[in-house]
UniProtKB/TrEMBL annotation, chain A:
PROSITE patterns: FBOX. Residues 3-48 form the F-box domain. Gene3D superfamilies: 1.20.1280.50. It comes from Lupinus luteus. Signal peptide: none annotated. PANTHER family: BNACNNG10540D PROTEIN, F-BOX DOMAIN-CONTAINING PROTEIN. This is F-box domain-containing protein.
From TrEMBL, chain B:
Keywords: Ubl conjugation pathway. Belongs to the SKP1 family. Residues 114-160 form the SKP1 component dimerisation domain. InterPro entries: SKP1, SKP1-like, SKP1-like_dim_sf, SKP1/BTB/POZ_sf, Skp1_comp_dimer, Skp1_comp_POZ. This is SKP1-like protein. SMART domains: Skp1.
Length: 360, 167
């Protein structure tokens, strides 16, 4: 075999290999030679990389110790198991608020109203400018906006952060005004718009926000529809749920991503049913799986689906992370928390995947 | 080589170091390079032998094995994930580094996407925890950085080098 300075493989093969490296190894490979540095920095390469990493989903769990209010992060990966995860590079005490396409939106605990968007694998972050809007801290009695959403568009390498909630001055009932602030990464600015609606959210459906079709999607507390924020027109819309979905009477429903499609998971006493929105524009929901919960019967009341692909579903309980392999129909315990005094894991678990997404 | 007439149409491939290997059109179709041969108007499946001067018999049969296994396993039940994984592991276990590299070349020459994807992942898995030096040697790449330039990269991305042993 010929050994040229550029190596034994043609460029397109090197690119395909690099695109399959974990992010840390990829950054190390920049030191191999100038060509590799150039290849790995190319815009099309980054797109290819993000496309391939789409297949490997993980979940990120913040473990909050309720006794000393300390928290640590772990990353649960179907292939590599559990690893520690750190946001120390932010040099601040933060709480993860949203996760999308490899970026995280975190709010500072020490300084209310300070938000970061970061890519934990490349350790790059962006401190968002403060919103002029004082009421952001008054949206909700605990001082946080009701909804925090992160939308990162990997094709155009830009992101939006959304803070939204019902207007209420402290101690008063909401007056129906729904205030929404949207941060645009390209303009580095917040914009604000107000609409009139009265939606309520529980902790779980605040966390579960899905970005598809250039819009963010949340499930409302009564689970009668999906609330959609469309970025192309700054407009709140409603999307119907599957017709054959039964909510209430011991059924709980959750909103998740399914390989880039919207998906609904319903958990009842005996079954976990999964719907996927095949055609976004004509609201064509299809049930794609129906999983018996018999072998985890005792845990059913406390399981919450966090993330899924066509191969597996990640679920969190109070103290455990479970993974269900859809083809082999096997349940596996991935992680069990050791401290006794933690908040439920599902309280702060997010779907996550590592990408090269740049937040700058 | 005398050919017995058979009703089943197969494609004849001649590796550089061995006898003709017959493959089903289904398998041949996955090799983009062969596919362009077949699509040529002058191609007659029963008589034409396609020469592959860049591919050895060993490499060709490995690639065919892989395609055969995976196209069969797709057709049968869903519960094959574990055995597929086992097959893939065994497949790689038999390959030393040099053989792996050569096979990747062959798969690239034949342009078989499924095998290429698989082998690229295998190489990525192999080098992911290795030092920069190892990677250079593995890929036959000459370091064209000056000492300062390389140090600069290592400093800028210091986090990526944490916990990795240099050799």
């Amino acid at each position: 075999m010929e050994e040229l300075g550029d190596g034994i493989f043609p460029e397109e093969v090197v690119i395909q290999i690099m695109a399959r490296l974990p992010v840390k190894s990829l950054f190390r490979s920049k030191a191999v030679c100038k060509l590799w540095y150039m290849l790995s920095s190319d815009k099309y390469f980054i797109q290819l990389y993000n496309e391939i990493s789409r297949k490997s989903h993980m979940i990120l769990v913040e473990i909050l110790d309720s006794s000393d209010s300390k928290s640590s992060l772990i990353c649960v990966d179907n292939l590599r198991g559990v690893s520690e995860f750190s946001l120390d590079f932010l040099n601040d005490r933060v709480k993860v608020r949203a996760s999308c396409n490899g970026l995280l939106c975190c709010s500072s605990i020490t300084d209310k109203g300070v938000l970061y968007v970061c890519n934990p694998v490349t350790r790059k972050f962006r401190l968002l400018p403060r919103t002029r809007e004082r009421p952001v801290t008054r949206f909700y009695p605990d001082g946080e906006a009701t909804l925090v959403g992160l939308a990162s568009d990997s094709t155009f390498q830009k992101f939006n952060v959304v803070l939204a909630g019902c207007h209420r001055t402290f101690g008063h009932r909401p007056d129906g005004r729904f205030i929404c602030l949207v941060f645009d990464s390209e303009l580095n600015k917040w914009r604000k718009f107000i609409s009139y609606q009265d939606d309520h959210f529980t902790h779980m459906n605040k966390n579960q926000v899905v970005f598809v079709n250039n819009a963010l999607h949340w499930l409302t507390a009564r689970s009668s529809y999906i609330l959609v924020l469309d970025f192309s027109c700054d407009f709140w819309r409603k999307k119907p749920l599957p017709n054959d979905l039964v909510y209430g009477m011991g059924n709980r429903i959750y909103l998740l991503d399914f390989n880039g499609f919207l998906s609904i998971i319903q958990i009842s006493e005996a079954w976990m049913k999964i719907w996927v929105l095949r055609d976004y524009w004509i609201d064509d929901w299809r049930m794609v799986d129906k999983v018996s919960l018999r072998c985890i019967r005792g845990m059913v009341p406390g399981i919450f689906p966090i993330s899924q692909t066509s191969e597996y579903v990640f679920l969190a309980t109070h103290k455990q992370v479970l993974v269900y392999h859809r083809r082999s129909q096997v349940w596996k315990e991935m992680y069990t928390v050791k401290h006794s005094s933690t908040f439920p894991l599902w309280f702060s678990a997010y779907a996550y995947r590592s990408t090269m997404f740049s937040c700058n | 080589m005398a050919k017995t007439p058979e009703p089943k149409r197969t494609i004849s491939l001649k590796p550089c170091d061995g006898d003709v290997i017959e493959v089903s059109p289904m398998i041949a179709k996955q090799m983009q390079t062969i596919q362009s041969f077949i699509e040529d108007d002058s191609f007659i499946a029963t008589t034409t032998i396609i020469p592959l001067p860049n591919v050895t018999a060993f490499q060709l049969s490995k690639i065919i094995d892989y395609l055969n296994y995976h196209s069969n396993s797709k057709a049968v039940a869903d519960n094959v994930k574990e055995s597929t994984k086992k097959f893939d592991e065994e497949f790689l276990k038999e390959l030393e580094h040099d053989k792996l590299k050569e096979l990747l070349h062959a798969a690239n020459y034949l342009n078989v996407k499924e095998v290429l994807d698989f082998l690229c992942q295998a190489v990525a898995d192999l080098i992911q925890d290795k030092s920069v030096k190892f990677v250079r040697k593995f890929f036959g790449v000459v370091n064209d950085y000056s000492v300062e330039e390389e140090e600069d990269i290592r400093r800028t991305h210091a986090w990526a080098f944490e916990g990795v042993e240099e050799d």
